[in-house]
Amino acid sequence: MQNLNSNRVVQSLPLSILRKPALNQSLPLGEPKLGLAQEAFSELIISGGKQQFLALLAPVLQSLSHEQADRWLTLVAPPETISNQWLRSIGVNPQKTIVISDRSPAKVMKILRQTLSLGLSHTVVSWIDVMPEGLKQQLSRQAAYTQSKWLNIKHPFTLAC
């Protein structure tokens, strides 16, 4: 585990780190307005090889890591090709990025649900290939409720949950 104040992307942190009050993010009250759940969820489907995948993903992650200084960019179970070294090389802001590397399908869903529920991330990025529609809608509503965005990326080496 690495210190959040270091100049490195955080690797394999426990979810309890997201609960620290340092970000002082208050959550909205009530249900999200109709349609906000669809706006909170985006999906990116990338075909091609590893190099194409990384080339398409790099500007997305770099841009997201520099958004909203008071909240995190959280990567949940990225593929092994997305290393700390690669994230640094593309200019991802290490002080505002959390990488949770557990790739066990059951744990990934739990982590994703908790991360979206806490609302301390402006964007949560997941790599899940197959997900039941009802679960996708539930997580989208949770993202909208906490005013977070959820980006799911599908590629041949993503998880099936």
UniProtKB/TrEMBL annotation:
GO terms for biological process: negative regulation of cell division; SOS response. InterPro entries: Cell_div_suppressor_SulA, P-loop_NTPase. Pfam families: SulA. It comes from the Bacteria. This is CDP-glycerol--UDP-pyrophosphoryl-N-acetylglucosaminyl-N-acetylmannosamine glycerophosphotransferase. The lineage of its organism: Bacteria, Pseudomonadati, Pseudomonadota, Gammaproteobacteria, Pseudomonadales.
